[in-house]
Amino acid sequence: PDLYHSSTKPRDAGTGAIVIIQKWYRGYSSRLKARQLRALSIFQSIEYADEQCQLQLSTLFSFMLENYTDICQADSELVHRFLLSQQHLRERQNFEELIGVSQSYTGPQLNFPLTFIDIDYVLQHFMKNQILHARYVTEVLFEMKKMLMRKPNFNRIKSHGRDITICGDLHGNLTDLFLIFHKNGIPSHNNLYIFNGDFVDRGKNSMEVLMTLFVSFLTCPDYVHLNRGNHEDSMMNLRYGFTKEILHKYKIYGAQILKTLEEVYTWLPIGTIIDNEILVVHGGISESTDLNLLQRIDRHKMSSVLIPPVEIRDQATKSKENKTGESATTPERSKANASSSDHLSKHEWEQVVDILWSDPRTKNGCYPNTCRGGGCYFGPDITAKILSKHCLKLLIRSHECKPEGYDICHNGKVVTIFSASNYYKEDSNRGAYIRLYAGTVPQFYQFQTTSETCLKPLCERCVYSKKNSEHWVLKERIISQKTDLTHAFQLQDHGKSGKLSQGQWALCMESVLGLQLPWRTLRPHLVNTDNDGNVDYLSSFQDVHIKKPVQEVQSTVIETLYKYRSNLEFLFNIIDSDQSGLISIEEFCETWKIFSSHYGVPSDDAQIEELVKKMDFNKDGSIDFNEFLKAFYVVHKHDTLKPD
User: Fold this and answer.
1) Which of the following is catalytic: 225, 231, 343, 410?
2) Ranges assigned E (strand) in 95-219
3) What's the EC number here (predicted)?
């Protein structure tokens, strides 16, 4: 046909190019969004799996308490350092007098009582990367404890026409807190704030975030309200970084600061109720949540979710009572019972755990939170039931990273707010905060702090280094389970071909790793496949291996230590009561025996003992545990970078 005489008007070439570019950009943006959501899913699954491991350690502590006497016969000092390490704090005046402020100190200097000028003063110095002197840190902590002891378990706020801002997890991200104050203003009579827990851990400026919030609270306690999160817990801080940060920044005073902070945590309120209509808690609720009970409990007895209340009844004493009919009390038993009396009852403890750890789900009902290992999943029916029971209209909670910084579910009755942007890595998520205006629906304000890399072109920002990518993080998790995965693969490989179908491979990955991930979608990033689409399952391990600190040690021992390295680090940090970074060889071996026997971890104790002795390079009978842990890390192919 004659194209020039067609009735269809030819499209302008420039317009056609624009349409093509727009189509490409929409497709590219869609693929980028899908990759970001997939990355967020990977990071979040691994984070929750780690939290599950951490919470499972509570059963170890219960085991040690219940078998207290038997374990004490082996090493009573070791058990004391695990369970009864609470030392009496020095009197405030005596402790503060020990800390002098040198003339060379140029950081913030605080005079009590604090004023609004002090908030600005602290912020200005923190912006210059100056830390607060240990003297002022301790003064702030002692003042916080004194003020918090007067607070009820639930803050009750009346808006009276004033604006209320609610912030979620900050996790040591000082830049996000600066941005919130810059956009939204500092706390004042007409600008109330609620910070909904998880102020610390993971971020490198947890102390500065905490001090900013505490100084703000001490300046205007009626306008700043702080809820406890699951990371306002000394045991969690041991694992997730805040303890290390304090010891690094405050050296000789760090241990005493940690002890004081531990008490402050216990006095933080566990929730806030706004205008008798809105409940604000960190985690969520369960079908048994009783706000009336929660308002009456002694919250300061909840030192850590990892130390649940148990009935201590040592077996040796029971045996003696059975034989003689008399009751015997040992010094060890008296100390153990004294420790137990400082805890909530089991029912009260579970109520607080649910408030701090639970997550909403779309499915009706209330069932165990299998991802985190603590708290529960609660459905829309549970939300409706609890809110109706207590004449409330809305639940605002935090605790979960959301791509957009917030999420609304359960027919609009549950709002999740998360205020740490770039939580897993740059561009992984936005942060957000809620602003409640009198008589209006909640308004959400999103933000995302940026670094110099965000000035690069879009295509460059999307290319992350392999070392920090979600796929390499996942590969590290895979290599830690190499033995179990290989066994699972071989059970499915009936023909011993070294290959499985994609479905078989995905089933093995999910069953062994326990991560609910789209394995078929992730497959191209993790393994090789042949032309028929079958998976070469051993290629799962081809790009990574665990460095062996001592070549003679069996590879299975290395894998076992790597697999449990985070739990071991946590336990040994408890043992290292003087925070010297050194523990004795005997303590290392005894702790490993308790740990491995309780969890049924297959290992060769002789191999472990030989390994530890070889790690004692200067033969002084102790090992630098931090250096020991650094020996067990995953080496990526072509990766010449040293571990952090």
Assistant:
1) 231
2) 154-157, 163-167, 191-195
3) 3.1.3.16
